[in-house]
Amino acid sequence: MFNSKTIITACFAIVLAGCTNLDEDVLDEVLGGDSSNAAGALAAAYDRLGDGTFTSHGGMLAMQEYSSDIGILPTRGSDWGDGGKWRAMHEFTWASDNAVVNDNYNNLTNGITRSLTAIKTISESDEEQKALFLAEAKGLLAFYTYHTLDLYGQAPYRDPLNLDAPLEILQAKDAIDDMILEVEALLPDLADLGEQNTHNGRFTKQAAYGLLSSMYLNRAVFKDRYNANSNFNFSEAAVSGSGSDMDRVIYYTSLLIDSGRFTLASNYFDNFSINNSGGPELIFAITQKIDNLHNGSNDLAYNSMERNQRCSPSNRGTNASCITPEFYATWEGHHEDPRFTRKYQYADGTWFKNDGTDVSVPANSIITGTTLPWFHFNRGIQVGQQYGPKLTTAGGFEMTTDGRIKVSALVCEKSATTPMVFTPELNFDNPTQAVFAQNQINRGTRSFKYEFDPQVGNGASNVDISLYRLGGIYTMRAEAYLRKGNNAAALADINILRTSRTREALYNNAAGVAIPAIDMEILYREIGFEMYWEMWRRPQMIRFGKFDAARLTSAKPASQPYRRVFPIPQQTLDVTKSFSQNQGY
Fold this sequence. Notes:
Layout: H1 4-13, H2 24-31, H3 37-53, H4 57-64, E1 71-72, E2 75-76, H5 87-91, H6 99-123, H7 130-152, E3 154-157, E4 168-171, H8 172-186, H9 205-223, H10 245-257, E5 282-286, H11 299-302, E6 322-323, H12 325-330, E7 341-342, E8 344-345, E9 351-352, E10 360-361, E11 379-382, E12 384-385, E13 387-388, E14 405-406, E15 408-409, E16 411-412, E17 415-419, E18 421-422, E19 435-436, E20 446-448, E21 465-469, H13 470-483, H14 487-500, H15 520-531, H16 537-543, H17 570-575
Parallel strand pairs: 2-19
Antiparallel strand pairs: 1-6, 3-4, 5-21, 7-11, 8-9, 10-14, 11-20, 12-18, 13-15, 16-17
Helix pairs in contact: 1-6, 2-3, 3-6, 3-7, 4-6, 6-7, 7-8, 7-9, 8-9, 9-10, 10-13, 13-14, 13-15
InterPro entries: SusD_RagB_dom, TPR-like_helical_dom_sf
Pfam family, one: SusD_RagB
Keywords: Cell outer membrane, Membrane, Signal
């Protein structure tokens, strides 16, 4: 972990030393070629995406979901107190010394540093793919800077080609226009996905279209962050091209939707599964691999599972984050939507339905490279009594006499008299504090959106993490259409998402059901159905004017507009006077 002093120093020095010690094989894995200095510097910039920033529950998930109406990480008895840093994200009590706020600022600005380093190194190299590598490095710089401006309102920059250039502090309301122009200028030098040895883990033209769509969609918020009534000007003339910001969102999202390169997965949860590498929806993703060199992170799956939920005798969950009552309530009447939950079928036809009717599942699903049986939990939002295997005193799964894994009703590991009943209600003893007693640790429905990879301990994973995927692109285009008053086009896009997803064979592969009409409230609900737990909710709430309101059933009070951005860490302010603290902090 880099502290603010390290980051600022690196911004001045523009050196790679200390930023990364990536293995040569990892460089080849990322870039698909020999690791030269230019390739190594670029790989280091990519590495910051997957080194906790977008793969850890404490990274962008904490910033974008725990602060939203979707997710929360409460203190659960003896666990997850940690000085209150997690519950502060939902209670809106964070300050400039909050560890979550500080760590993510350091990660993102370290991404800026690594990108600037890559730009300098590539510019001075004789790399054969110099123009491509340089465009990718600049694309990553824009990606990290965009997220820093989104969360903190300010971001550091220094001309990487001029060692005498001063440190600049970019301000969101001014920098967003320049960033849009800069990314658009990169398009001729970026590769199309799949060309020039690229894959969806590289910053391609298609990744740039996703970033440009995001920037145009949120440009009005960046320019008027503290608007008291959330009356953002989404009809402002675009910084380039013709029409308004929403016209440009429609333009760039349509380039992706109409390209024929991507298709919606009928099984929604395939997008978040172990075998999702190269998936049909993934436009820009963090490619993860268990290779004993740079193992991927399992945190987005592991964090929500209860400690007695075990995919193998040696792997378990950690009983931390959960869904808010507010978000769970939006699914009322929509539990048959294919994105709500999906049951697992074993190769012999056995279903695990997680409803008490299953007494056993086959044990012949074996974790690669081991003799351990693999128990497959259901996916999506899990509610009510939970079922699964229990451990014997010898440390293996309880088995039936015919060699199958025995399925039982589960209890919580750290409160054995508390049944593992995930309740939609949280019912905190003190409604203003997200704190549970030890016998209340079962509360909160859980997000099992990402598949738990049981191969190498709790921490490693092969699941690629989507940064931009086709489903999200449809939601952005639908929002742009609706903000322009084209309800029919917005409804068509949302219904494409709904009807393209299908349920499991247990329900005859039934397709999702179209809705008859749409307005802003319905669209907001539908974006949640498609994009929950994918680290985009906070900016969605701000755009829709919902971020400031109290969420009393999950301990969030009414808040002032200044909370729409996080504070600059105090440790950064102590190092350099170039920054000033954000309004309200």
